[in-house]
Amino acid sequence: MRFPAAVWALTLAGALLVLSGGRPTPAAAAPGLQAQIDAAPSGALIVVRGRHEGGLVIRKPLHLVGAGPDAVIDAGGRGTVVRIEAPGVTLRGLTLRASGRELNTEDAGVFVGAPGALLEDLVVDDVLFGLNLKAAHGAVVRRVSIRGKDLPLSRRGDGVRLWYSDAVVMTELRLDRVRDLLMWYTKRSTLHRLDVRRSRYGVHGMYADQVRVLESRFEDNAVGAYLMYSTGVEIAGNRFLRHRGSTGVGLAFKESDGVVVRGNLIAGNATGLYLDGTPRVADTGALFTGNTIAGNATGLHLLSSASGNVISGNVWDHNTVQVRVDGGAQTGNTWTRGGRGNYWSDYTGVDLGGDGIGDQPYRARLWFELLGDRIPELRFLAGSLAASAIDFAARALPVFAPQVILEDPRPVTRMAVPAEFRHAGMSVPFVLASMLLAGLGALALAAPARRSWRRT
Question: Is residue 18, in this structure, part of any structural domain at all?
Answer without folding.
Answer: no
